[in-house]
């Protein structure tokens, strides 16, 4: 059974990961929440250009436009922002929406940029250290 994002390899008959189409790294966290239409919803898979949200009560379909009016830590006071967004897909789970951000105001861009910079620090691998030189004399002082 394939996992989400996998497809069969036509030459091998095996499942392989689908090609990544995203333009920006994603932070896999729900630290930030967004507010629209009076609801505060936690985010998943957040980036500068969109997010996945869960728990939205009203049905929306792909292509629907909405305005995100707040962003901040879930349960805390939201910073007022103006983000125009489009529903990219609804589902697969109940009340899940994938949003594409169409237009960010300066405040929203700054918040998302700072959030992603903090998350990317955890995604970057530490620089590899060279193994010790076996020909170097041992320092036994």
Q: What's the short version?
A:
By secondary structure, this protein is mainly β. It contains one helix and eight strands, in the order ββββββββα.
What would CATH call the architecture? Beta Barrel
- The share of residues in extended strands comes to 35-45%
Strand tally, please?
A: 8
Strand count, sense and barrel status of the largest sheet are:
6 strands, antiparallel, barrel
Order of helices and strands: EEEEEEEEH
Range of helix content: 10-25%
Give the N-terminus to C-terminus distance in angstroms.
Answer: 60 Å
For this structure, the CATH topology is: Thrombin, subunit H
CATH superfamily: predicted glycosyltransferase like domains
Structural domain count: 1
Describe this structure in words.
The chain has 141 residues and is mainly β. The protein has a single domain (22-121), classed as Beta Barrel (Thrombin, subunit H). Helices cover 13% and strands 39% of the residues. The protein has one helix at residues 106-123, and strands spanning 6-8, 15-17, 32-36, 39-47, 50-54, 65-73, 79-90, 96-104. The strands form 2 sheets. Strands 3-4-5-8-7-6 form a 6-stranded antiparallel β-barrel. Strand 1 (6-8) and strand 2 form a beta hairpin. It starts with 5 loop residues before the first strand and ends in an 18-residue tail after the last helix. The relative contact order is 0.16. Residues 1-5 and 124-131 have low confidence and may be disordered.
């Amino acid at each position: 059974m394939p996992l989400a994002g996998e497809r069969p390899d036509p030459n091998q008959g095996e499942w392989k990961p689908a090609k990544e189409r995203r333009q920006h790294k994603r932070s896999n966290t729900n630290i930030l929440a967004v507010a629209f239409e009076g609801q505060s919803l936690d985010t998943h898979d957040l980036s500068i250009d969109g997010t996945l949200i869960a728990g939205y009560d009203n049905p929306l379909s792909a292509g629907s436009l909405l305005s995100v009016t707040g962003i901040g830590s879930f349960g805390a006071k939201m910073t007022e922002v103006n983000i125009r967004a489009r529903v990219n897909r609804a589902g697969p789970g109940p009340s899940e929406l994938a949003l594409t951000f169409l237009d960010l105001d300066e405040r929203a861009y700054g918040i998302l940029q700072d959030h992603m910079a903090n998350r990317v620090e955890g995604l970057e691998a530490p620089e590899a250290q060279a193994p010790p030189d076996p020909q170097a004399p041992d320092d036994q002082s």
